[in-house]
UniProtKB/TrEMBL annotation:
InterPro entries in the record: KR_dom, NAD(P)-bd_dom_sf, Sc_DH/Rdtase_CS, SDR_fam
PANTHER family listed in its UniProt record: NAD DEPENDENT EPIMERASE_DEHYDRATASE FAMILY PROTEIN, EXPRESSED, NADPH-DEPENDENT ALDEHYDE REDUCTASE-LIKE PROTEIN, CHLOROPLASTIC-RELATED
UniProt-recorded name of the protein: Ketoreductase domain-containing protein
Keyword Hydrolase: no
PROSITE patterns named in the record: ADH_SHORT (PS00061)
SMART domains for the chain: PKS_KR
Taxonomic lineage of the native organism: Eukaryota, Viridiplantae, Streptophyta, Embryophyta, Tracheophyta
Family classification: Belongs to the short-chain dehydrogenases/reductases (SDR) family.
Length: 271
């Protein structure tokens, strides 16, 4: 048997991580983690529909930067689509917009859109409006996107769904009751959907980040409170969006095709 220097294996793994010819939708795609995911998927060759809500400027800048980095003269690598993920018609229109812009099939869905009440109320203090906002974006929004993806993603072995949970699920951390419950719903829907999609070639997994240096993390916290979170992490720092994006890229690729119905905790060992 001929000996191998291992270079072929490395090249094979690298090729299996690439996403050339694939179309991805990233909800919350201009947010803290979502923007890193959008850029990373584009760097692997995917064409990305960046779904956002509210101020269009961050999404437009992100799309401009992605397209400039990957050949402004060619077909667009990314588009921005305003989408309230809690609205079924807008979610359907998002998928239509991705097909219209990039043609062909849809391959990847990443649901990074999320809402957190930065006043951190106890359950007894949580208002119905706060509860509805978190469940509307986090649970209902994910449900609507999953339903659309289950019916529209390619069934040729390249279909990938990556949802976002949180490491607060199961930690019983005070002040996160409604948020953690909405993310627990995400985990349950994702794992059940993976089983319902048996035979389609579509995988479905959830990523559960820990405390990550994003505007959502810092919102409502004093500097001292943020420092306490950092001090409690085994690696002595917050996660960065760029720590999370490669895991999503792996799950979206052929290299991650045997990972299915899992919740991957990505938190530096904090939970």
């Amino acid at each position: 048997m001929a000996e191998s220097n291992g270079k072929g294996a490395v090249a094979s793994v690298t090729a299996s991580m690439m996403l050339h010819g694939r179309v991805a939708i990233v909800t919350g795609g201009a947010g803290g983690i979502g923007s890193a995911v959008s850029k990373h998927l584009a760097s692997l060759g995917a064409r990305v529909a960046v779904a956002y809500v509210g101020d269009p400027a961050p999404a437009q800048k992100l799309v401009t930067d992605i397209n400039a980095a990957h050949g402004a003269d060619g077909p667009p690598r990314a588009i921005a689509v305003e989408t309230d993920v809690s609205d079924a018609a807008q979610v359907h229109a998002l998928f239509d917009a991705a097909v219209a812009a990039f043609g062909g099939e849809l391959h990847i869905l990443v649901t990074a859109a999320a809402v957190l009440d930065a006043s951190y109320p106890t359950l007894a203090e949580t208002s119905e409006a706060s509860y509805d906002a978190m469940f509307g974006a986090n649970a209902r929004g994910t449900f609507l996107c999953l339903r659309e993806a289950a019916n529209r993603l390619a069934r040729d072995g390249r279909g990938r769904i990556v949802t976002f949970s949180s490491s607060v699920v199961g930690s019983l951390r005070p002040w996160y009751a409604a948020y953690a419950a909405s993310k627990a719903a995400v985990e349950t829907m994702t794992r059940i959907l993976a089983r319902e999609l048996r035979g389609t070639g579509i995988t479905a997994n959830a990523v559960a980040p820990g405390s990550t240096a994003t505007p959502m993390f810092y919102d409502g916290k004093t500097e001292e409170e943020a420092e306490r979170y950092i001090a409690g992490t085994p690696l002595g720092r917050l996660g960065m969006p760029e720590d999370i994006a490669p895991l999503v890229g792996f799950l979206a690729s052929d290299a991650g095709g045997w990972v299915n119905a899992q919740v991957l905790r990505c938190n530096g060992g904090a939970v």
